[in-house]
Write a structure and sequence with these properties.
Keywords: Coiled coil, Mitochondrion, Ribonucleoprotein, Ribosomal protein. By secondary structure, this protein is an alpha+beta fold. It is 43% helix and 15% strand.
């Protein structure tokens, strides 16, 4: 039987990727998403928000839309723009999101049109995957995300695409509450243990000092 602690850790990881900022179902007319920003970055360069969005939101967006390619291109030049490009199938609108079961993101796979292999670029950490030109049957909406915080980037993406945020089920809400309560208990336990160890170290230091003073007194006699 899997230990309770291990089970809760796995549950925490699953809930973390399934729900939170970025958990949304994209319309079936979206063919791919391309994001470009500088990495590493300086906090004053305007690339911090895009990087945070990539770390925190994009994994959830990909989880719920597994069939849509999402390419990230890291550059080294902090003076370059930070962009988020959304590729739409020509004639599609942002008001027709697919609606897979909230508990099964894989059901979204069949809702999106097949993306040709030529469009499935790989992400790059060396600036080798710049945004491609749209195909003949595509149009592109480009968001300037430089200097934008994560929440603003997410709001713009949802507004431009008409994506539907994923709402946790009642059972998932209970699981999330259980995970949160367990996290708080663990925090209290860690604090108790920290104080115990500090007290133990102080007592050991006092004992060592007492032994040292006793030895010095003995030598002086």
């Amino acid at each position: 039987m899997v230990g309770v602690g291990r089970r809760m850790n796995k549950l925490k990881q699953l809930l973390s990727i399934r729900h939170g900022p970025g958990a949304a179902i994209l319309p079936s007319g979206i063919t791919r998403i391309h994001m470009e920003f500088s990495f590493p970055y300086k906090t004053t360069s305007g690339h911090y928000g895009p990087r945070k969005f990539w770390r925190r939101c994009l994994p959830r967006l990909k989880y719920w839309n597994p069939s849509i390619p999402m390419i990230v291109n890291h550059t080294k030049d902090e003076s370059t723009p930070a962009t988020l490009r959304i590729y739409f199938r020509q004639g599609s609108t942002a008001a027709a999101p697919s609606e897979p079961s909230p508990s099964d993101p894989s059901s979204a796979r069949g809702k999106h049109q097949h993306v040709p292999q030529t469009l499935q670029l790989r992400s790059s950490t060396t600036g080798e995957s710049p945004a491609p030109a749209p195909e003949a049957d595509e149009r592109v909406v480009t968001l300037d995300v430089k200097g934008q915080d994560t929440q603003r980037i997410l709001e713009d993406l949802l507004e431009r695409t008409g994506a539907v945020p994923v709402v946790p089920t009642a059972a998932e809400e209970l699981e999330m509450q259980e995970v949160a309560e367990r996290r708080e208990r663990a925090k209290v336990d860690r604090e108790v243990m920290r104080k115990h160890l500090e007290q133990q170290k102080r007592e050991e230091a006092l004992m060592a000092q007492a032994r040292s003073e006793a030895a010095a007194l003995k030598d002086a006699l």
